[in-house]
Amino acid sequence: MLDTxxxxxxxxxxxxxxxxxxxxxxxxxxxxxxxxxxIRFVGVNMPGFGVTTGxxxxxxxxxxxxxxxxxxxxxxGNVENLVVMGHSRGCENAxxxxxxxxxxxxxxxxxxxxxxxxxxAQRPFWVIELVLWIYSLGPTAKRIMHPLMKxxxxxxxxxxxxxxxRAMMCIRTMASLEYWNGLHxxxxxxxxxxxxxxxxxxxxxx
Length: 206
What we know:
Blueprint: E1 2-3, E2 13-17, H1 31-37, E3 40-44, H2 62-76, E4 82-87, H3 90-100, E5 105-111, H4 125-135, H5 139-157, H6 164-175, H7 179-192, E6 196-200
Parallel strand pairs: 2-3, 2-4, 4-5, 5-6
Antiparallel strand pairs: 1-3
Helix pairs in contact: 2-3, 3-7, 4-6, 5-6
């Protein structure tokens, strides 16, 4: 986790959730701008993506991920005028965390959100399910899949990853997207409070 002002800021606190792959460095251009304004920036590093250690028991679903961020927000303390920011896969979690912390919420920022329905990159979904099934078969399957998935991410998708384990974390996490079914209740909570919300899109977000 990156916390630029552990003592807090009366101006506000931005809690940012990265994509898959990603880390707090997803926000490397935003962080110094907030620091200059005296706004606290808390960059979450989800388990298993390189900065925070993973665990073989991780489910990589939204319940687990949301709980991780909510516990982090509760633990760091001194959170005023909370703005929750998400990038790509982290947007679903940002929306859920924002709704959970509605009492202190000042805004929501979504950068290239994954949307409300499964998009072309995840179709046909049975291919992803097949990859996950093979991966679940045991250590030998994992040893085979790791270099294949590292190659796939680095040479076909064009996202730089250092290990096959990291690539599989991305696939497992992306496979657990809930889209509208998981988001609508959180969106309703945020809208009822008339919270300021911004969605930003770009052609390239590497």
